[in-house]
Amino acid sequence: MSSLLVVIFVIELVVQLVNTIGAATINNMLWRFYLSFPTPLARQFADQRKKQKEYLAVRHDLNATSSQDEFAKWARLRRQHDKLLDELEKKKSELEASRARFDRYLTAVRLISTRGAQWLLPMWYGRKPMFWLPYGWFPYYVEWFASFPRAPLGSVSIAVWQWACTGMLALVMDTVVGILGLVAASRQSNGAKQKQRQKQPVPAAQAGSGKVESKKDL
Amino acid sequence: MSAALVNVDDGDAMEPTLQSILDQRSLRWIFVGGKGGVGKTTTSCSLAIQLAKVRRSVLLISTDPAHNLSDAFSQKFGKEARLVDGFDNLSAMEIDPNSSLQDLLAGQADGDAGADMGGIGGMMQDLAFAIPGIDEAMSFAEVLKQVKSLSYETIIFDTAPTGHTLRFLQFPSVLEKALAKVSQLSTQYGPLLNGLLGANNALPNGQNLSEVMEKLETLRATISEVNAQFKDERLTTFVCVCIPEFLSLYETERMIQELANYGIDTHSIVVNQLLFPKPGSDCEQCTARRRMQKKYLDQIEELYDEFNVVKMPLLVEEVRGKERLERFSEMLVKPFVPPS
């Protein structure tokens, strides 16, 4: 049953990763990855970006054109601008809907493959021993706990294995995140100190009060 | 300058007159619109006079709350169509979109006073003021219904300044949607309401539900018919009036785009109040203004190459009265040639 051991571990790892990185970030990454394939949807998005660029160019031209001196040119640009804007808006909702659909699908898959599996596998393989404890090494109550709830006595049950994986991974994740956070914070504070050393503007109020004081001294 | 005003012979250039409107016999509704003070009323009166020469009967309606038809023809017009003095097939009327609703409702209440549905006016009034803009649309529809029954061959609308006009033309679509919803609801929940209201469908304040619904349904039918007619380019066209100045041009461009959105045909622009100083004139203001007008005129010709751009001169007299209007109207058909 070593493959089941690995499966459980991988599932718990995925759950922990999703929890730490965040579902939205993962969705975004996958979405970008999905769009990098030459699908019709990716082409639509590329078109939309192109159109957006075009729109910005037209808007730039429109702003650069004097409506009073070159009315005809301005009006033509304006028509183009309005048309492009209209098309962009129309397309935007469509594309957003496709994105939402993708997200929904992804969320469903993620939930089934992590939370679903987390619940289903222990139920299904409840009676199966993951591995056997060496005979006689542990007292009865440890063996009883290790085989909880339904695995044969003297073995480690799937639920306990899952629980152990979760606990270990959570600890590791916390440690990694903590270390990363510390590193980032120290780097930031270093940078901030340097910045402070570089620029130290005199606060206006202080400067004013200093002046007043010097006057008083005089 | 005169080169531009000479009738161009090649086929694809649009001629600088409103002859195409006169020739299009199928036209039933003609709107004349533009910014305030550019000469909409003068243009619509002139167009009406020219149309009266080639049509069996023409009706000129002013929907502008600041009525100018009476001033233009030096004759008092009211809510009823009245023949213009000196014409036997040209009538005019002035409607006020706001007050005509009040009149309409009051008249209805009076007319129905004998029957047991005297409160319908009140109900309609409640409804009318519940939806923004519906009052104007209703009165407009009512006027159109009247006008249709009067069997004029062509009807010219002298509309209120731009924004107002566009709102007016939008109403049919808006109202049609709202009313379709209302009547759908009433058919769905009609039985339920009937059960609640009792045997004779009486509403709490002595009104009758089915009567109100019937009324709304006929109104909706009228409006949707009018809507379809307005969007038919064989039946309806919009004449834009402007002066060669920035704001007026800006409004015209906006209006043309919006009309295109509503699907209302427009292919004529009347450029009014052009200055043609006599050669050798030393009027500084006139030449300066002429230069500015020339600039915008060139822009108009460049931008609206698919339009009949009619150029009308600024006269030294006020265009009022039948004779002057007739003289002015000639220039809508025969391009004005500036004195050289």
From TrEMBL, chain A:
One GO BP: tail-anchored membrane protein insertion into ER membrane
UniProt keyword list: Coiled coil, Endoplasmic reticulum, Membrane, Signal, Transmembrane, Transmembrane helix, Transport
Main location: endoplasmic reticulum
Residue ranges annotated as Cytoplasmic topological domain: 173-218
GO CC aspect terms: endoplasmic reticulum membrane; GET complex
Record has RNA-binding as a keyword: no
Region Disordered, annotated ranges: 188-218
Family: Belongs to the WRB/GET1 family.
Name of protein: Uncharacterized protein
Lineage: Eukaryota, Fungi, Dikarya, Ascomycota, Pezizomycotina
UniProtKB/TrEMBL annotation, chain B:
Domain of life: Eukaryota
Complex and partners: Homodimer.
Similarity comment text for this entry: Belongs to the arsA ATPase family.
Subcellular location: Cytoplasm; Endoplasmic reticulum
InterPro entries membership: ArsA/GET3_ATPase-like (IPR025723), ATPase_ArsA/GET3 (IPR016300), ATPase_ArsA/GET3_euk (IPR027542), P-loop_NTPase (IPR027417)
Record flagged with keyword Cytoplasm: yes
Record-level GO cellular component terms: GET complex
Protein name: ArsA/GET3 Anion-transporting ATPase-like domain-containing protein
Gene3D superfamilies, sorted: P-loop containing nucleotide triphosphate hydrolases
UniProt KW Protein transport keyword: no
Organism: Thermothielavioides terrestris (strain ATCC 38088 / NRRL 8126) (Thielavia terrestris)
Residues annotated as domain ArsA/GET3 Anion-transporting ATPase-like: 28-333
Role played: ATPase required for the post-translational delivery of tail-anchored (TA) proteins to the endoplasmic reticulum. Recognizes and selectively binds the transmembrane domain of TA proteins in the cytosol. This complex then targets to the endoplasmic reticulum by membrane-bound receptors, where the tail-anchored protein is released for insertion. This process is regulated by ATP binding and hydrolysis. ATP binding drives the homodimer towards the closed dimer state, facilitating recognition of newly synthesized TA membrane proteins. ATP hydrolysis is required for insertion.
GO BP of this protein: tail-anchored membrane protein insertion into ER membrane
